[in-house]
Amino acid sequence: MAGDRPGRKRSEVSRAAILEATRDELTAEGYDRLSIDRIATAAGVGKQTIYRWYPSKSELVADCILAGYIVRPVIMTPDTGDVRRDIATWIRSFAKESRTPSAASLTRAITAAAAEDNAVAAHYQDQVTITQETLVTRLRAGVDAGQLQKDTGVSTVAETVVGALLYRILTRQELDDVFVDELVELIFSGIVNREER
Amino acid sequence: MAGDRPGRKRSEVSRAAILEATRDELTAEGYDRLSIDRIATAAGVGKQTIYRWYPSKSELVADCILAGYIVRPVIMTPDTGDVRRDIATWIRSFAKESRTPSAASLTRAITAAAAEDNAVAAHYQDQVTITQETLVTRLRAGVDAGQLQKDTGVSTVAETVVGALLYRILTRQELDDVFVDELVELIFSGIVNREER
Amino acid sequence: MAGDRPGRKRSEVSRAAILEATRDELTAEGYDRLSIDRIATAAGVGKQTIYRWYPSKSELVADCILAGYIVRPVIMTPDTGDVRRDIATWIRSFAKESRTPSAASLTRAITAAAAEDNAVAAHYQDQVTITQETLVTRLRAGVDAGQLQKDTGVSTVAETVVGALLYRILTRQELDDVFVDELVELIFSGIVNREER
Amino acid sequence: MAGDRPGRKRSEVSRAAILEATRDELTAEGYDRLSIDRIATAAGVGKQTIYRWYPSKSELVADCILAGYIVRPVIMTPDTGDVRRDIATWIRSFAKESRTPSAASLTRAITAAAAEDNAVAAHYQDQVTITQETLVTRLRAGVDAGQLQKDTGVSTVAETVVGALLYRILTRQELDDVFVDELVELIFSGIVNREER
DNA sequence: AGCTAAACGAGACGGTACGTCCCGTCTTCAT
DNA sequence: ATGAAGACGGGACGTACCGTCTCGTTTAGCT
């Protein structure tokens, strides 16, 4: 069989401890100030056990994301039949959850990590895609129901929404109701003045 | 007179050398791997000369932005009378410029810096605001001309556009024509299906 | 019968491989830089197989000496009837053999080991004693033959000779003919001037 | 002028602290178990300050000897006119001093160091030479006074005496009166039986 | 012209963290 | 039961940088 090599197996206990410690450090200190020494100590693990599995700080963070230690809780939206209301609810939930200081700082940290490293960026992308899934699904249902235009670039819309929200988080601006409302209005109605057409 | 203290004056040659070296390091290595020692050596300057003026890495980067060493070239748009065409042109220019590898990596580095540090974030915000200025001005003109809706949240629109573009840069996705076109369509027309109203 | 326990018996092949690898490491690197990991790899043996039999680095080296992997070839001297000539021959042989670079470095390594560790020192002492044996025997024969003084502290003489030789090896001085001749003269005749008595 | 380089000067306080800590570690742990980390901590010094001046553990120990932090107190001998008595006194003093546990362990450590490293060996040699100086001087005076044979290889005698003593220290044998007396007898009278000539 | 003082390059300092090597132990599979 | 393979918690290695602190030197304003 494949995995029947001799030698001790990888300790899942250690793996979990390392990833938890990494997430905590990331939240508390940010990506820039991550310290492998500190993570090892906090996880009660030898440094080599970290380096054995992760060639670099970024791979560690990447696995942290992959293993689901750094997740925005997936936001669900009921399908009330009114797309705009449902999407607005989703955005409002996201905004609310983002106002938690620790969530915001973890988001900033992980975004910085993604910005600086290719490997992290890939996993980050996957993770955000999952977050967007509900949004995309609801939008698609709206298209099918004829409420949204047939040729709507559903994923572009989702990305634009998430991009706008992340931008506010990164620049440390409030995700307040005014912004959310304007964003929803923008997304749905656009800015063209149709009265004078 | 103020500032007429005795002693040697701050060397502008050194200041410029430091900021240039910082920008180069930032482009090449990213914010995370910035090294003051290396900057000092590259700039041919003693470390103390850096620390005399910048209490920390982030302040240095902040001044680097402030002094215009890290700028996206301000993109101008002619007012052809057609708002949508003009905005599309602006976005397309931004996208094109962002496809330069060094511009993209510098953008990522500085965004990471902003994500991790408050002081940088503030200057970053200012800088992006300047970048958005043309966009905002053109949009406002469109509103005045009656082409756009009166209550358009002009700066929210600008932020959403920039947010979406930055998001693509951060996640290392192509800023291709399809995305740009869909973004423009989204911004102007929204996604609601007006046929079946 | 004793030792008839169940299970696989200790592999003499492994034991030999370990001791040989230890001797080689010792010669090449010295006691200070001995590495159990490297020995295990070189011997094609698991580390545990070493630790099962040797509680520490020093015990390993001690057994290495005990098992005769680290020996100065026993120097024999014919009994020509002339003690002084025979002893001189012995010393000259020892000196010659010590001029081999690998023999010298192994001697230094093992001496360092003995200096730093009690257990090694004991075995070292035994080993040197064996080396001295021929010397002591020949000296004793000389005493019996009336050529040497009756109350000669035979083992003190042997130790002094060996001590002097080792001292030259440790300090990396040549064991040249001049030194050997002076040593022999010293041992046999002493330094007192008998002419003017 | 020569030494007018820019930059902060080497801290003599740190140098002294490092050498003292090294000597203490050497006495307590031996050469093999020397730890630069521990020395740095004990000396209240950054590790780099050690590595800046000493490329390796052995260079550090070498400077420690050179700077006189590891010395056997120089043993003086009055010239009573009786060479044998004076030399015996010297040896007895050396033996007595060597019975101090810390002196013995430091001697063993430094001898191990000399055995394993060329650079240390050179300085060690110098240091021992100084120790032997008194001995050599007294012997030479004995030769001049006609008490010793004219062609006595004075330094070979000194080396043999010291070599024999060090050998006993290395192998952890007592430097008792019996040994000392036999050594003195051997050195002065040799072992040849003159009665029956 | 001489004095005082700030800024400069250079570089040593006490430290923190890095990524690697090795220690001695423990676990797993194969013989 | 023994053995090789190899992961584990931990200690030390030698290096890179941090931010601070002297140094000798240069440049300015003030007397």
TrEMBL record, chains A, B, C, D:
<dbReference type="Pfam" id="PF16859">
    <property type="entry name" value="TetR_C_11"/>
</dbReference>
<feature type="DNA-binding region" description="H-T-H motif">
    <location>
        <begin position="35"/>
        <end position="54"/>
    </location>
</feature>
<keyword id="KW-0805">Transcription regulation</keyword>
<dbReference type="InterPro" id="IPR011075">
    <property type="entry name" value="TetR_C"/>
</dbReference>
<dbReference type="InterPro" id="IPR009057">
    <property type="entry name" value="Homeodomain-like_sf"/>
</dbReference>
<protein>
    <submittedName>
        <fullName>TetR family transcriptional regulator</fullName>
    </submittedName>
</protein>
<dbReference type="InterPro" id="IPR001647">
    <property type="entry name" value="HTH_TetR"/>
</dbReference>
<dbReference type="InterPro" id="IPR036271">
    <property type="entry name" value="Tet_transcr_reg_TetR-rel_C_sf"/>
</dbReference>
<feature type="domain" description="HTH tetR-type">
    <location>
        <begin position="12"/>
        <end position="72"/>
    </location>
</feature>
<keyword id="KW-0238">DNA-binding</keyword>
<keyword id="KW-0804">Transcription</keyword>
<dbReference type="Pfam" id="PF00440">
    <property type="entry name" value="TetR_N"/>
</dbReference>
<dbReference type="InterPro" id="IPR050109">
    <property type="entry name" value="HTH-type_TetR-like_transc_reg"/>
</dbReference>
